[in-house]
Amino acid sequence: MAWCRSFALAAVLLGFLSCYAPVPSLASSGSDGFLQCLSAAMPKQLLYTQSSPSFTSVLTSSVWNHKFLAASTVRPFAIVRPTNASHVQAAVVCGSQNDVRIRVRSGGHDYEGLSYRSERPEVFAVLDLADLRSVSVDPKAATAWVESGATLGELYYAVSKASKLLAFPAGLCPTVGVGGHFSGGGFGMLVRKYGTAIDNVLDATLVDAKGRLLDKQAMGADVFWAIRGGGGGSFGVVLSWKVKLVPVPPTVTMFILPKSVDEGAIDILTKWQEVAPAFPEDLFINVVIAKQVAKFQSMYLGTCDALLPLMETRFPELGLNKTHCKEMTWIQSVPYIYLGTTATVEDILDRSTSASSSSKSTSDYVRQAITKDVWAQIFAWLAKPDGGVMIADPYGGKVSSFSESATPFPHRGGVLYNIQYMNFWPAATDGSAQTKWLKDLYAFMEPHVSQNPREAYVNYRDLDLGQNVVVGNLTSYKAAQVWGEKYYKDNFQRLAMAKGEVDPEDYFRNEQSIPPFVASKRR
Ligand SMILES: Cc1cc2nc3c(=O)[nH]c(=O)nc-3n(C[C@H](O)[C@H](O)[C@H](O)COP(=O)(O)OP(=O)(O)OC[C@H]3O[C@@H](n4cnc5c(N)ncnc54)[C@H](O)[C@@H]3O)c2cc1C
Ligand SMILES: *[C@@H]1O[C@H](CO)[C@@H](O)[C@H](O)[C@H]1NC(C)=O
Ligand SMILES: *[C@@H]1O[C@H](CO)[C@@H](O)[C@H](O)[C@H]1NC(C)=O
Ligand SMILES: *[C@@H]1O[C@H](CO)[C@@H](O)[C@H](O)[C@H]1NC(C)=O
């Protein structure tokens, strides 16, 4: 079990650190010093440099966004694939001793690729956690320890093997990595019933910037608060998470019901905004909108017979009838929604991400229903030749029941729904038209969405919201406020204070990492 292993490691940690303390700091040789230091601490075959024959295949093994495969992408000079926690500790110690930063990768789904590329020229290494992915479930206690390199599909699969009546409330896409996903919040079809993934995290293990392996108690309340939603890549390397599993009935009812504009999509969507966040928590209906069609997708924690009268009372406009219902187990719903109606449960174990297209995404939160007239204009945007997709996920229920400061994820009471805007383009083209469409739609939406700040979801990362500026040796707090308050609202300052506690020298840094807040020398 992951926990036992971690605990044993914590005990040998001091010894480990003193082993490495005498290694001279080879600041001048940087990357060479890093590799030398690491090859003394872990098997050489777990280290890949650009001259290794398999470097490219290891690098691209979990790159979701095709555009970051381009030759112009700033790549790591090395990739480290740890197979145990002490390798991770060594990577951090060797990195900081040699002035080499590391970027941590779990599932590689970051929309901006921050887990494996840099926006500016930089010498860095990737710490790829793909081989730290065990899941151990305790069905009696309804808990599990999951390592960050596991995918959501692997987590869900292991939970369902242990019990048909347990689940975990996180995202829809089975190839998303636990490490990045939990770091930013994480929500899917159970969000109204059980909240986000991080609302169900009980404990975690973290390797900090000094290479120490810390559990919840050792990292302290501020840091444990920060890693649950404060975004990946800022506080250290989260190795594993202890989660609370949640009960699901033996049968859930799914439906996927497309409505075109001609079939009344605009009126139905207008009504959806009001009813979807207010349904009983057992009912989740989101909408995927593209071209002139709004596709309503639903999971109901119960049978079709129980769902139909509820829909008849609350949302008759959708016209749901028995023929639309598909009853199945919770685990069957995962491939059904995400991989298509013919996929099997085993398909959710497929880790390959096949980065076949490039994309750009951004997000909004809606707190006041958008008017029918505006929806008509949105459909005109979606009809454009280079138009993309909007996905609207309702909140309300459990996710909205927490205070804004309970976790760094602040999008709680009063949020009707989250919007994700996405546009895709074929690998061979540059996507300028699709990117422009997305930016123009985002500008158009401003008066209709949350304001002061205009909230955004960190897991739908968008570097156009703002990027860090380094002043002296530290990330500027002031510059980071621009994007940070969109993702975290008033929690941003507290996150910066937690960062100041756990990583005051700002070792874990990227284009949107949390800056260390030091009250006396505020930058
Ligand atoms: C196809 C697709 C579907 C998605 N569906 C959903 C959804 O349904 N719901 C939802 O909420 N989100 C969804 N997302 C967004 C997803 O949650 C984020 O992209 C998430 O950050 C990906 O996690 P990852 O481990 O795969 O990413 P990575 O690219 O590996 O990491 C993302 C960030 O976290 C950091 N990081 C990674 N691992 C660790 C770690 N162990 N410790 C510390 N920092 C770490 C990285 O350095 C990087 O900055 C989806 C994304 C995609 C591409
Ligand atoms: C981690 O792997 C190394 C070999 O690289 C081994 O020496 C060490 O004992 C392992 N540590 C644990 C805790 O398994
Ligand atoms: C169910 O609704 C669809 C339209 O979405 C309609 O074509 C079908 O006839 C309806 N079936 C029943 C049994 O009412
Ligand atoms: C940054 O830190 C290095 C040592 O790590 C030091 O030599 C340098 O002077 C610092 N620069 C600034 C601007 O503080």
Task: Outline the structure in words.
This protein has 4 domains: 10-128, Uridine Diphospho-n-acetylenolpyruvylglucosamine Reductase, domain 2; 135-247, Uridine Diphospho-n-acetylenolpyruvylglucosamine Reductase, domain 3, CATH 3.30.465.10; 251-328 and 356-462, Vanillyl-alcohol Oxidase, Chain A, domain 3, CATH 3.40.462.20; 466-520, no CATH class. 31% of the residues lie in helices and 20% in strands. The chain is built from 16 helices and 20 strands. The chain has helices at 2-20, 31-39, 55-60, 85-97, 152-162, 178-184, 191-194, 216-219, 221-227, 265-275, 304-314, 330-338, 372-383, 432-445, 477-488, 491-502, and strands at residues 47-49, 78-80, 101-105, 124-128, 135-138, 143-147, 166-167, 201-207, 213-214, 237-244, 246-247, 252-260, 283-290, 293-300, 326-328, 357-366, 389-394, 417-426, 470-471, 474-475. The strands form 5 sheets. A 7-stranded antiparallel β-sheet has the order 15-12-14-13-17-18-16. Strands 5-6-10-8-9 form a 5-stranded antiparallel β-sheet, sandwiched between helices. The protein has a 4-stranded mixed β-sheet with strand order 1-2-4-3. The longest helix is centred in the first third of the chain and has 19 residues, at 2-20. Mean pLDDT is 93; it is low at 1-28. The structure holds flavin-adenine dinucleotide and 2-acetamido-2-deoxy-beta-D-glucopyranose (3 copies). The site of flavin-adenine dinucleotide has 33 residues, from strand 3, helix 6 and strand 10.
